[in-house]
UniProtKB/TrEMBL annotation:
Residues at the active site: 116 (proton acceptor), 377 (s-methylcysteine intermediate)
Misc: Reaction proceeds by a ping-pong mechanism involving intermediate methylation of a conserved cysteine residue.
Class of this enzyme: transferase
Protein's name in the database: Probable dual-specificity RNA methyltransferase RlmN
Function: Specifically methylates position 2 of adenine 2503 in 23S rRNA and position 2 of adenine 37 in tRNAs.
Residues the entry annotates as binding [4Fe-4S] cluster: 136, 140, 143
Residues that coordinate or bind S-adenosyl-L-methionine: 191-192, 225, 248-250, 328
Amino acid sequence: MTESDRAPIKTLPLVFEEPKGRGKPPRHLADLTPEERKARLEELGLPGFRAKQLSTHYFSRLVDDPAQMTDLPAAQRDELVAGLLPDLMTPLRTMEADKGTTRKTLWKLFDGSLVESVLMRYPGRATMCVSSQAGCGMACPFCATGQGGLQRNMSTAEIVEQVVAGARALDRGEVPGGPGRVSNVVFMGMGEPMANYKAVIGAIHRLTDKTPDGLGMSARGITVSTVGLVPRMKQLADEGIPVTLALSLHAPDDELRNELVPINTRFSVAETVEAAWDYARKTKRRVSIEYAMMRGINDQAWRADLLADVLNSYGEWGWVHVNLIPLNPTKGGPIFQGKVFTKSEDGDMDEFVRRLEAKGIPTTVRDTRGNDIDAACGQLAALE
């Protein structure tokens, strides 16, 4: 494909509601509170107290084979499992990189929608990157998921199931390094988490609820990413859940960000960064600014200076950290001012870091993993 064959970047309409006409996934115990799980079984004419046993199998023992649920009566086991533990997603493909410590899974949901999750094991921790929507309506032109549009929101249980699947793989020693547990979850997979707010908050509760009601994770190990849905950012600040907020900024000026992140035409850089500052102020949790480094597009030294000035205008108590991301380019993506979206040169990234740190902004360059398995979210689903 030549440059002339590619469509130019344009501001696309924003989608905040999923397309109509799609059915809902089956109700699962991860969608429900402990009280609701008990009531669900009673609605089905089954003993409500069995809900806690099913929760123990799912969240504590990480069991996915009903035959191993020997404390459930054999005569009712299938009914109980069907009532609270229906199948939610089917793995279509799992690809590995980094000697097996990075595992990307393509999942097929009940209605045929495709989503992706990635398990990344590091020394001392294991992180699950999860999807919150099938597709995405935010239309960021450099993102594979954004190019495909939004299919639908995921349910709370579909989000949680990605983490539980990773927890099973670690618990069973399927990932190099021996048995382990998921210590961190990042909502940086397919979709805009804040556009599926209710399900995402429900998933955070299930992940942090004490076992056997949930996975028993620390909220401080959970990061929620957003391109800047300001009203939802403010709402999250009032939830009282100390998760980390990650703002995908990608440009410090409205002129460029309007094109790279179309939601910026509704909420400006100033409004978005102020909402992030407000989150840090209320929660006392440092905000992460995500900045994908794109060669010749947003990696100029003067933009590093401008980014530092924008962030420093809200205080100097260390409320923010910048995470530079070498762009994982998508195949067949659009052209921006005659340039193909690709990652910045190492020297330009080094200078960007130097400029930010010179103005007191803590900065790191993300350790990229899985480039050889299309690990950027949406790439595997697009190939499928």
